TrEMBL record:
CDD domains: M18_DAP. Keywords: Aminopeptidase, Hydrolase, Metal-binding, Metalloprotease, Protease, Zinc. Its EC number is 3.4.11.-. GO terms for molecular function: aminopeptidase activity. This is M18 family aminopeptidase. It comes from Gilvimarinus gilvus. Its cofactor is Zn(2+).
């Protein structure tokens, strides 16, 4: 039965990632599932009156989302079970004046977003998706999500005959060498705004698009997510970091009980530091908590009884590069979720939050692992330390072990996401303040 459950979960995960080429699409897809499950959509411009026993969600910038189940137990006694992830992934984003003609080809100028593995973008079938803002019939700008879906661009490698050092000493200049080809130039080619206008009207035949005013568009690999390996041991996909964690949190939230209050927050802009109105370093979560519990004393009491699980993928030990890992902390794919530890607070895990997570893993029958970076290598970070310091909630950093993080096609174990989901569900169901688990 568990194998069938794992397969069903993974199918949903793969479909979610495939339908979410940008943070905007991921947020819209999560919102649609929440609405279908009976969650009430909140508008930040409205006055709120949240009621126990009901479920809500709110978005900001169309790219970050908070979902909340208001449990029947008092918030100041049992707190809020929080689960956090991020919607963005490293990618190539179009510059405002992206369209140019060079050597007979139409190319797109792009900006590298986050710490992308640039070499993995070459020789891929690329499409374009994101948000377009335009002028319609009125004077108020309108925005709509688009996704060309089909391969419309490519970034060909230079042949080995023209670069004999490519296999020994290859570096990539993002300004000069990361210019995807869109089409062969000719007398009838259109500018980018014309192409976007056509795509908007293809998506909605009734749309009136008088002028394109702006856009936030990304390139993405059209290669679909898949289960791979001789025994289908692995999930291969773009954006596993960190849509996998978003889906885990969403799945747990959709199945959360009505007794314990639970919260899911998926922020944009983690890959570039989280410093935005909708990022973890911004006030989105704090604003939500202030409106949920206006009284400062009650809110601080509730936060003291609360806990945050920050879920973001972890580095699995690579068999070809074992020297890149600490010998005692090398997580394995399909070895269970990973507790991430860093004494310099790049991760927010404490001995107490780690202990609580281990207890939950034990109850769910899920194995658990630990990750610590080599002492002579710099460590990455997550929304965990940011949320912990901004909101003042005890926090744990965990993640699913992954290969090729920030590649256009990452690799995770086919058992691990479902394992983390089972632990997240147990976490949401536990009606007791953190540190007081029965």
């Amino acid at each position: 039965m568990q194998r069938a459950d794992t397969q069903s979960f993974n199918q949903g995960l793969l479909e979610f990632i495939a339908a979410s080429p940008t943070p905007f699409h991921a947020t819209r897809n999560m919102a649609e599932q929440l609405v279908a499950a009976g969650f009430v959509r909140l508008n930040e411009a409205d006055s709120w009156s949240l009621q126990q026993g009901k479920r809500y969600f709110v978005t900001r910038n169309d790219s970050s989302i908070i979902a909340f189940c208001y449990g029947s137990t008092p918030l100041e006694k049992t707190g809020i079970r929080m689960f956090g992830a991020h919607t963005d992934s490293p990618c190539l984003k179009l510059k405002p004046n992206a369209y140019s003609v060079n050597a007979g080809y139409v190319q797109l100028a792009v900006e590298v977003y986050g710490g992308a593995l640039l070499n993995t973008w070459f020789d891929r079938d690329l499409s374009i998706a994101g948000r377009v803002t335009y002028k319609g019939d009125g004077d108020v700008p309108l925005s709509r999500l688009i996704d060309f879906q089909r391969p419309v661009a490519c970034l060909p490698n230079l042949a080995i005959h023209l670069d004999r050092e490519a296999n020994r000493n290859k570096s990539v200049n993002p300004q000069k060498e990361m210019l995807p080809i869109l089409m062969v130039a000719g007398a009838e080619e259109q500018d980018l705004h014309s192409l976007l206008k056509t795509e908007l009207q293809r998506t909605d035949a009734d749309a009136v698009v008088k002028a394109i005013l702006g856009f936030e568009l990304s390139l993405y690999d059209t290669h679909k997510p898949a289960l791979i390996g001789f025994n289908e041991d692995f999930i291969a996909s773009a954006r596993l970091d960190n849509l996998l964690s978003c889906y885990v949190g969403l799945d747990a939230m959709l199945n959360a009980s009505t007794e314990q209050s639970c919260l899911l927050v998926c922020n944009d802009h983690e890959e570039v530091g989280s410093a935005s109105a909708c990022g973890a370093k911004g006030p989105m979560l704090e604003h939500f908590l202030q409106r949920l519990i206006p009284d400062t004393q009650l809110r601080l009491r509730a936060l003291d009884a609360s806990m945050m699980i920050s879920a973001d993928n972890a580095h699995a030990i690579h068999p070809n590069y074992q020297q890149k890992h600490d010998a005692g902390h090398g997580p394995m794919l399909n070895g269970g979720p990973v507790i991430k530890v860093n004494s310099n607070q790049r991760y927010a895990t404490t001995s107490e939050t780690a202990a609580l997570f281990k207890l939950l893993c034990g109850r769910a029958g899920v194995p658990v692992q630990s990750f610590v970076s080599r002492s002579d290598m710099e460590c990455g970070s997550t929304i965990g330390p940011i949320t912990s310091s901004e909101v003042g909630v005890k926090t744990l950093d965990v993640g699913v072990p992954t290969f090729a993080m920030h590649s256009t096609r990452e690799l995770a174990g086919s058992d691990d996401a479902y394992g983390l989901s089972r632990v997240a569900k147990a976490y949401f169901e536990q009606v007791a303040a953190p540190g007081k688990f029965a």
